[in-house]
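Q: A reviewer asked whether we had any structural model of the full assembly, not just the individual parts. We don't, so I'm hoping you can provide one. Inputs are below.
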Amino acid sequence: MEHVIQVQNLTKIYGKLMAVNHINFEVLKGEIYGFLGPNGAGKTTTLRMLTGIIRPDKGEANILGFNIQKEPLKAKQNIGVVPETSNAYVDLSAWQNMMLMSELYGIPKKEAENRAENLLDRLGIYDRRDDKVNAFSKGMKQRLILCMALVNDPLLIFLDEPTSGLDVQSTHLIRDILQEFPEQGKTIFLTTHNMDEANNLCDRVAIINKGQIAAIDRPEKLKNMIKKLKSIEISFDKALNTKNLSELPHITQIRKKGDKFIVFTDNVDGLIHSLTLFAESENLKIVTLNTLDPSLEEVFVELTGDA
Amino acid sequence: MQINQYLDQLKRSLGIMKKDIRIYYLKGPVVIFGFLMPLFLFLAFFIGSRDMPMDFLISGLIGMTVFFTATAVSPVIAPWEAQVQTLERLISTPISITTLLFGDMLASFLFGILIPILPIALGLAIGINIIYPLTFILGIILAAACFSSFGLILSSPPSNAPSNVMMISSLVRFPLVFISGIFIPIEKMPYWGKIIASVSPLTYFTDLTRYSINGTSYYPIQVDLIAIIVFIVVFFFLAVQLHKITIYKRI
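A: Here is a predicted structure for the entire assembly that you could use as a starting point for your response.
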């Protein structure tokens, strides 16, 4: 399998802070690779080093076969970057932003116009192409940024929290488009702290915490790492609070989630038994009862120690 | 192969130039800082120094206009773009820092040539003749390139607050006007004044403009032309080296 990203001992130091601490990983062609971590873990710093926006203090990164420090122009020619904060030129129109990006990638004018037309249309902002970006909503700006990142038809796309704070429609549109890329042989490097997004989109995820990689694997394999964290989702026909359930046997932790309870246990069979006995004794009807595997979020919390 | 790469990067710098013109140059501040401010300085000096010949004052006004126009916007582009994070977008694209700066320089160069048409028209309207028009045009082109490169040096401190950079820029630009023979002829300056004037690129352009208008100059015009060309090369090279160090500190 061809590696499109190879990272060796990549390190970034800000004063006394080791923002990224000797990390190593590889991303395969056609993968959607999630880079997860809590705020300040080093996700964006890593992405910025991989895209040549900042320089590492140690280590190296090869992007599409080119060392990003030694041959930055060749490495950047076939990548697209979607930063966390929209950074289109707000005093230019959407179309002018697209044409500017095309010129910076050296795309011939006619081809650039065709690509811009297709992308803006696909992302639903073609009708607003002549409007200045400062009149765009956050979702529209982020869609434009994605268009700008795709204008060079990149082989590798870096996305930094691409759906953070977006409306549902924009989020779904962006996710739908991202899911089409692996079929076209494109690779995606995605930083996020949205576990649902990582779980649904990514082939593999790396979890970074305090500048160090805590784990790299497929989402399902990561969940299997902490099978001990089995849980049960249960709801009753009458309102209860956590105190009512907390003294039942086999419960290690309990959390209220809307009208349901998420009950963690190391003995699923024993817990179901005690919950049904409890319902009978209290004259309650069980409305839902589901056994749950650990979520990626729980893996994340387990590995990073953050709530 | 190497030449093709340079041409390719040159084309990309035209994209930067177009962007700068659309966003920064087609706005009021360029005319205000480039022409109106020198005009007011000129009027103030004209009222206070009635014995100065008009051709001397007009050549000074043209010198100031080229200088202030070419350095009006370029110092604030980098800090402004760093602040609104568009600089990050530019750095992530396949253009070199030299290409980026050359694009910025081209935009200010273009306006450094165009805006001086106003004081030239004013001079012609009040009866000033340009004796050596080709030397004059060549001087304006070289001076606009020189001052545009100088503006890039002013934008190199790694501050992302445009107001800080403007303050530094003003602290450097205004004293230069007063030591470059615009208001006081170089020949009337004391010896130490002449030494200081010789390190200012504006001195050579003002001298060249006076030669083009009244046929007299302090330095031989070959010296003026060579000095401006040397300043262009040194300023642009220095600007690229400084930005290579500071651009990553802005992100």
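A: Points you may want to mention in the reply: The mean pLDDT of chain B is 91. The first helix of chain B runs from residue 2 to 25.
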